[in-house]
Amino acid sequence: MKRILITGTAGFIGFHLAKLLLDEGFVVHGIDAITDYYDVTLKRRRHQMLLQSPGFTATECWLEEADRIGEVARKFAPDVIVHLAAQAGVRYSLENPRAYLDSNIIGTFNIMEAARELGVEHLLMASTSSVYGANEDMPFSETEKADTQLTFYAATKKANEAMAHSYAHLWNLPTTMFRFFTVYGPWGRPDLALFKFVDAMLDGRPIDIYNHGDMYRDFTYVEDLVRGICLLIDAVPVRPESADDIEAGDSLSPVAPYRIVNIGNSEKVRLLDFIEAIEEALGIEAKRNYMDMQTGDVPATWADASLLKNLTGYQPQTDVRDGIDQFVAWFRDYYGK
Ligand SMILES: NC(=O)c1ccc[n+]([C@@H]2O[C@H](COP(=O)([O-])OP(=O)(O)OC[C@H]3O[C@@H](n4cnc5c(N)ncnc54)[C@H](O)[C@@H]3O)[C@@H](O)[C@H]2O)c1
């Protein structure tokens, strides 16, 4: 069975991915610094759950520690690396851009170096729908130009895509970059809307609704997302002989074993409908605090996920109401509310 090194396993998506891969029989090593960007208890609990599986081991260290990252990677000798650890969050990047520079640029470089040195079969790394920035042509497709990032977070992820392309080209390192669209579900992040809304509504506090509710997101259920990642592990990009060999709609580079893949639900959901679904799941009416648009935010995201489907045969499919129900059930149980 393949050996997979995953960064960010104490994080929301890394935890779910590690769980799925362990269930599928893979051997997994996790790297995470358990940063204090949000509740570290939640991160530690995720790691504790994973450590119950005999196939899982973990190292607590920073991506920025180049020597340590190299050592851990050499010792584990992975076939595949999935790099998910990052300073995430669109809004926090206005407050503390340096955290993004350190974790996302330096940290990602160290992971790419480890992947190059070990000559892994496949390096897969997280980018974001935020790289589509001010693009207005929807649904967003990977073959479109994406040059108008609106936050430093998005800029670091776009930089990661360019960095990864150069390594794929220079070292023939097969690389897939994922662009994730608003991921939600159990064990979710406290800084994201669903968590904040449910928490506030259960406490009787008002919820902040940006752009007066005129917002749309392609909400992607976390279990669908990690299923997509798991299937993409085997969709190893191969450098094409010539640009003519690239199929229409494929983002494969003409000069490198490198591709970008959207993972989204392919459904544009209105924020106000999302809130109504939460109200129904909780049986509570939200106290609404309508606000202006936040700097750097975009009014809508919507994925064209046909490349994912073409490569893997898989399409995320969880209805947002079902996903919210799953989140609410987890939240009530975990926090005893
Ligand atoms: N959740 C989403 O909606 C979403 C959307 C688009 C892209 N992404 C990307 O997906 C990836 C995973 O996101 P997530 O939602 O699981 O976030 P998360 O914050 O829950 O997980 C990230 C993990 O990385 C760790 N980490 C951060 N900086 C580190 C560093 N310098 N060294 C070592 N560990 C570090 C954190 O401790 C955390 O456990 C990130 O790259 C993020 O940018 C997420």
TrEMBL record:
A family per Pfam: Epimerase
Gene3D superfamilies for the chain: NAD(P)-binding Rossmann-like Domain
Keyword tags: NAD
Keyword NAD carried by entry: yes
Domain NAD-dependent epimerase/dehydratase: 4-235
Superkingdom of the organism of origin: Bacteria
Record InterPro entries: Epimerase_deHydtase, NAD(P)-bd_dom_sf
Protein's UniProt keywords contain Glycoprotein: no
Protein known as: UDP-glucuronate 4-epimerase
Organism, scientific name: Roseovarius litoreus
